């Protein structure tokens, strides 16, 4: 068997490209364990909206960093980096291949580029002032203070824009994650372990992706709405739900009667496609990514990984 001690495989790309399924297939072939890099699947109860992989879909392949946090708590990129690096070391001790699978680019970059993040505590006074402004006004401020982060953040997510401004206004702002993200992609080797990385990016045609996005939306109704109602009943605030992304934001609007079902489907499909384009913008900056069509080039993926492990 190949020496896996210094190998790390990453499967990434935009939503609905089949990353989870491919990760399982490669883990079965090459003897691997999955580390999920999804900023929502780490939370318990965010199953349908995050399209969390099910127990059956895992096919007995070990999966890590799923369902490890309470949705009422904050779990950030620094938390992910620490836990992911611990899991990589554990997986090496078992003689298996660590495979990072997910679409949260900042999480993956934090691990493979060993980025350092400042610990910026909540600034309640600043938050109170920022809450008075509209999300549009907040985004203008962020674009001025931290244009790198502004390019990649969901500008309609008020919680995240406020947090970004909180970090940008901190004394350590010159070393914050926005700067790290811009500088590290494709340039900084990981120093915590002596390993080499293969990054496979999955991409499909626009028509295929839109079709898959629309099917996902259809398949999650009405389960998504029931999930949102349960999260609210469990004490997760509407503001917190909004921070979990498009499905929860517009699903909440439907649950609250602000939009009808047809509007929900149309808005979510449009916004998801826009999100896909932001994901691609993030990863296209990284020259290390090998882009593959998982439908037409499945055999090429297997050969690519085999060559990498050899």
Key features?
Rossmann fold; 310 residues; 3 domains; Helix Hairpins; 6 strands; alpha/beta
Walk me through this protein's architecture.
By secondary structure, the chain is of the alpha/beta class. The protein has 3 domains: 7-117 and 185-204 and 286-309, P-loop containing nucleotide triphosphate hydrolases (Rossmann fold, 3-Layer(aba) Sandwich), CATH 3.40.50.300; 124-175; 208-277, Helix Hairpins, CATH 1.10.287. Helix content is 52%, strand content 9%. It has 15 helices and 6 strands. It has helices at residues 19-30, 55-58, 77-93, 105-112, 124-130, 135-145, 147-152, 158-168, 177-184, 206-219, 223-233, 238-242, 246-255, 261-284, 298-309; strands at 7-12, 32-36, 63-64, 97-101, 196-202, 289-292. A 6-stranded parallel β-sheet has the order 3-2-4-1-5-6, with helices on both faces. Helix 3 (77-93) crosses helix 4. It is globular. It starts with 6 loop residues before the first strand and ends with a helix. Residues 174-192 have low confidence and may be disordered.
- State the separation between the terminal residues, measured CA to CA: 9 Å
Q: Give the amount of beta strand, in percent.
A: 5-15%
CATH superfamily of the largest domain: P-loop containing nucleotide triphosphate hydrolases
Overall pLDDT metric: 88
CATH topology term of the largest domain? Rossmann fold
CATH secondary-structure class of the largest domain: Alpha Beta
Flag low-confidence runs. 174-192
Principal-axis shape equals globular
- With strands numbered from the N-terminus, the spatial order across the biggest sheet is 3-2-4-1-5-6
Secondary structural class? alpha/beta
Architecture per CATH nomenclature, i.e. the level-2 architecture of the largest domain = 3-Layer(aba) Sandwich
Query: What's the structural domain tally?
Result: 3
Helix content: 40-55%
């Amino acid at each position: 068997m190949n020496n896996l001690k210094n190998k790390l495989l990453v499967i990434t790309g935009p939503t609905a490209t089949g990353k989870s399924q491919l990760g399982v297939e490669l883990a079965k072939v090459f003897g691997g364990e999955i580390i999920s890099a999804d900023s929502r699947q780490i939370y318990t109860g965010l199953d349908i909206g995050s399209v969390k992989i099910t127990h059956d879909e895992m096919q007995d392949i070990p999966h890590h960093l799923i369902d490890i946090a309470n949705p009422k708590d904050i779990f950030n990129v620094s938390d992910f980096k620490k836990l992911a690096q611990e899991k990589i070391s554990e997986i090496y001790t078992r003689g298996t291949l660590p495979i990072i699978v997910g679409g949260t680019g900042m999480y993956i970059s934090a691990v493979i580029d060993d980025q350092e993040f400042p610990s910026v505590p909540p600034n309640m006074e600043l938050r109170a002032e920022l809450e008075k402004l509209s999300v549009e006004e907040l985004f203008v401020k962020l674009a001025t203070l931290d244009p790198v982060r502004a390019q990649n953040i969901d500008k309609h997510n008020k919680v995240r824009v406020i947090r970004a401004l909180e970090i940008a206004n901190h004394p350590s702002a010159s070393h914050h994650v926005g700067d790290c993200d811009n500088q590290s992609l494709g340039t900084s080797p990981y120093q915590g372990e002596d390993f080499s990385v293969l990054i496979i990016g999955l991409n499909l045609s626009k028509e295929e992706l839109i079709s898959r996005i629309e099917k996902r939306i259809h398949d999650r109704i009405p389960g998504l709405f029931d999930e949102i109602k349960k999260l609210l009943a469990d004490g997760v605030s509407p503001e917190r739900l909004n921070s979990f992304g498009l499905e929860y934001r517009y699903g909440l609007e439907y649950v609250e009667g602000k939009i009808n079902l047809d509007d929900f489907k149309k808005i979510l499909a449009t916004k998801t496609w826009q999100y896909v384009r932001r994901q691609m913008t993030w990863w296209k900056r990284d020259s290390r990514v090998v882009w593959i069509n998982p439908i037409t080039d499945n055999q090429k993926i297997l050969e690519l990984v085999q060559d990498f492990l050899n």
